[in-house]
Amino acid sequence: MYALLAAAVVAAPAEAPAWEKEEAKYLKNIKQVTKDFVRAGEGYFSPDGKTIIFQAEEKGTGNPFYQIFTMELATGKVRRVSPGVGKTTCAYFRPDGKKIIFASTHLDRDAKKHYAAELKAREEERKTGKRRRYTWDFDPHFDVFEANPDGTGLKRLTSAAGYDAEGSYSPDGKKIVFCSNRSGPKNLELYVMDADGKNVRQLTKAPGCYNGGPFFSPDGKRVIFRSDRKKKDHLQLYVINADGTGEKALTDDLNWVQWGPYWYKDSKHIVYAAADHSVLGRPNYDLYWMDVDTKKKVRLTFAPGADVLPVFDKEGKRLMWTSTRDGRRPAQLYLADFTPPKE
Questions:
Q1: Beta partners for residue 271, in sequence order
Q2: How many domains does the chain have?
Q3: Is 117 helix (H, G, I), strand (E, B) or coil?
Q4: In a domain, 207, yes or no
Q5: How would residue 13 be classed by pLDDT, with cut points 50, 70 and 90?
Q6: pLDDT tens-digit profile of 331-341?
Q7: DSSP 113
Q8: Can you give the CATH number for the domain in which 195 is found?
Q9: Is residue 5 part of a domain?
Q10: What pLDDT, in 10s, does the model give residues 280-300?
Q11: Which residues form the domain of 314?
């Protein structure tokens, strides 16, 4: 009898941590999507939801910077769709699924010369055990490129001097909103151009700071973005009408960094990442849900590691995001079935 009881105790499944129970209210069937990369993140769904496009660092290439890849979710088949040289970021599918865009520095004649400095900095981190403070360098050689979903037919869409990146399409596929410092190195503003790169117009007017990470709402009426105009490097969330009017701040707690917003299918809610930088130690990012009009928010993730850059599929049924989950492993993409918070 005692042996049976002991066996029953041993066989009993471990109780899920409290943070997993909290997440289960909104996220179910969480699974890691990417694995065969040094690191991976910032993924977006194809219009039919069958493929994702993302940035990742390949193993064994000598290039420590991100390149752009697609993955078929059903088969796990991966294809690199960027040139493989220099840096890339911010890939996105056109709404009809027939084109992709991403930013790249592969035209920089000195692109490969930057590898050594990055690798040296990583080796120093490894030796000292001290992590560098994260910074984005706004490389002036970044331009926005269009390509077929398999990477062929690469076409340059921006050619102005300075940083051009962080692009995404309007719902009808006719426009691209992006970040650029073409008016001056410290003026990182949002611009809108036709999908072929023509007819560029400035959307935001907040010189001397960063305005980036823009996305059109599914109804095409508004653009969500992030900006550090109130406190350098402390990003806050903003929304603006697609014609440049009606701009308003959605967050204003300058102890926090709040960034990476993405629209839900109803054009009324967003998901984003945030962390309190007033705490001691390394701030931990989690995902939040917000009603854009009421500013009411709900926390979605509670993992020990960082959860950032969340996106929905077109139907709003799945959430994908970049995460370290336990805080010890490199960032990878994760996917879950999504249940919206009740309000």
A1: 262, 289
A2: 1
A3: helix
A4: yes
A5: low
A6: 999 999 999 99
A7: G
A8: 2.120.10.30
A9: no
A10: 888 999 999 999 999 999 999
A11: 16-338
